[in-house]
Write a structure and sequence with these properties.
This protein is α/β, with parallel strands linked by helices. The protein has 7 helices and 9 strands, in the order H-H-H-E-H-E-H-E-E-H-E-E-E-H-E-E. It has a 7-stranded mixed β-sheet. Helix 4 links the parallel strand 1 and strand 2.
Length: about 200
């Protein structure tokens, strides 16, 4: 789960994140929506202010938006058709409930020691053949950024091994660069894996 300092940061910056996301279209999310069956149930894990959740709901999907930040969830709750759940990663206990889990730059806040358990919980929460799509920053180790948020960094080979150990089949890996709230450009990877 994210630490208290990281959650506090997101509580304080929920409106700024909502404004940052306005007008942004995530091409990987659009592809996910094209691949899902009509009416699929999607978990937006670490949903932030709910921009992606809203986009999924507008496309006709059943959406559960989950986040550890109460203020982020207040923003997400304003999105029509989105059900919100205040919970940290370690509280995910659904079984075969979702067709897809979308975790856009959220799992990177979990300590590495907890990551295998989170992947196992996501695998249980997905229906057979369900898809997990997540993005995180690449690198090694753990630490805090200049905004005092906790991050875990992974190399692709490390991620692939962890996913396979949790029962996933990795089907796509995409690389990119992103500039976030901290203002520095960093490399990231988006991974698609099936249960």
């Amino acid at each position: 789960m994210s630490d208290d300092k990281t959650i506090r940061f997101y509580d304080q910056q929920s409106e700024a994140y909502r404004k940052l996301a306005e007008g942004f279209e995530n091409s990987r999310l659009i592809r996910l929506m094209q691949d899902l069956p009509a009416g699929a149930h999607v978990l937006d894990l670490g949903c932030g202010p709910g921009h992606d959740s809203a986009q999924l709901a507008r496309a006709g999907f059943k959406v559960t938006a989950m986040d550890a930040s109460r203020e982020m969830l207040r923003e997400a709750a304003l999105c029509a058709g989105v059900t919100t759940r205040h919970a940290s990663f370690d509280m995910l206990d659904d079984v075969a409930a979702f067709d897809a889990v979308w975790a856009n730059f959220s799992l990177l806040h979990a300590p590495k020691a907890e990551f295998p358990a989170h992947l196992a919980a996501i695998h249980r929460a997905l229906r057979p053949g369900g898809v997990l799509v997540f993005s995180l920053k690449t690198g090694s180790g753990e630490g805090r950024d200049r905004l005092d948020r906790f991050y875990s960094y992974y190399e692709v080979e490390e991620l692939t091994g962890l996913l396979e150990a949790a029962g996933f089949r990795v089907t796509e890996i995409e690389h990119g660069h992103v500039t976030g709230m901290a203002g520095s450009e960093e490399a990231f990877v988006t991974v698609t894996a099936h249960a």
